[in-house]
Design brief:
about 100 residues; mainly alpha; Globin-like; two-stranded parallel ribbon; about 40% helix; about 5% strand; globular
């Protein structure tokens, strides 16, 4: 069987500046979810990835990742938001509290 990926096309969807903070929050959460699952599976931090010993250098806080590693998570977040918009959903920021 030959697998041919067919993702929802999002090349025409542009994310506004208002969504950039959301992208970063989602990217961090993607990393946190991945790391939590790895830790539950018995993985630990290691300087190099070692599947046999279940060690991975990415098991650090999001802020400690290289920009290249963060970009992997950002791409997931951006594409997720673009698919949501492509499917016709709308994303609105919550109203800011006035600090009464």
């Amino acid at each position: 069987m030959t697998y041919s990926p067919r993702p929802i096309q999002t090349k025409d969807i542009q994310l506004g500046e208002d969504l950039q903070q959301l992208v970063e929050l989602l990217a961090e959460n993607v990393h946190e979810q991945w790391a939590a699952r790895r830790l539950m599976e018995g993985w630990t931090y290691g300087d190099q990835r070692n599947n046999e010993l279940k060690q991975h250098p990415g098991l650090v806080a999001y802020g400690e990742l290289s920009e290249q590693e963060k970009d992997y998570d950002r791409t997931t977040a951006v594409e997720t938001l673009k698919v949501i918009l492509q499917l016709g959903y709308r994303i609105t920021a919550p109203e800011k509290e006035t600090g009464r």
